[in-house]
Amino acid sequence: ATPTAVMVGTGLGARRGVLFKNATALESSARIDTVVMDKTGTLTKGAPEVTQVVTDGADESEVLPLVAAVEKESEHPLAAAVVSYAAGLGLPARVASGFRNVPGHGAVADVDGRRVVVGNRKLMEAEGVELGGILARRDELASQGQTAVLVGIDGVAVAVIALADAARETSADAVRALHELGVRVVMLSGDNQSTAERIAGQLGIDTVIAEVLPGDKADKIRELQQQGRSVAMVGDGVNDAPALAQADLGIAIGAGTDVAIETADVVLMRSDPLDVPTALRVGRGTLRKMR
Ligand code: ADP
Ligand code: MG
């Protein structure tokens, strides 16, 4: 790249809040043919809210304080949503002991002498929680695009907490703009397959890689690269950092975590998914001027 072309490209990007950290980032962005986007906090606002609590007959006001006690110890965005929902109902706070976080799955603790497990199906299975009829309700909520969290108390699944996380206003437009650039768009998520597929469908994304553990996101990028793709990864979370580093181009959402921003090659200061196609266009324009 000629220094002038790089300066022009970097300046063009900066005016739109797209920060290229170096000349290599600008050059890589010109070659991208696949964009992988994290779901929570990237395509969605990352501020989930409880929409519904379904129990198998158990009293919601007895179940929620137990769940909230566990989630108060967790740093997961879903946990914060559950805690504030319970507080909003004016339910009394309980204290958890023996808290254990299970990354990508949920959390476990003892509350009032009861073993409380909150998270996905795999966690219920790992903790020996009997699923029973509540599983059908979880599937139903997940197929609506909601994140459905299971609650196990003393070895039995007694409730499902449904949470919705609204898509960012421009996510669908961003996918469309990427398709117009001839770029394939993939959604990557730790969430349930049917939840992820539903949201991907609403946004026009054709490929979904879901139920990916936090440590496995980078492997998914590597697999795409091994198929000959030139991959950009867009993410916001701590668990996106290894994938951002693995990608040919790591793009961080400006509102994301420090680790993501530090690891990425490009930072989107406005946290707007539409700035992803902008970044690729700036890169292509710069490369054209260099020839
Ligand atoms: P994402 O990539 O969507 O942020 P994670 O990989 O962090 O998701 O978690 C994957 C799934 O594990 C969540 O969709 C949820 O079902 C479950 N989970 C993880 N942590 C928690 C928690 N603290 N409370 C409830 N469920 C959780
Ligand atoms: Mg995220």
Automatic annotation (TrEMBL):
Signal peptide positions (record): none
Superkingdom of source: Bacteria
Location of the protein in the cell: Cell membrane
Family note: Belongs to the cation transport ATPase (P-type) (TC 3.A.3) family. Type IB subfamily.
Protein name from the UniProt record: Heavy metal translocating P-type ATPase
Organism: Intrasporangium calvum
Lineage: Bacteria, Bacillati, Actinomycetota, Actinomycetes, Micrococcales
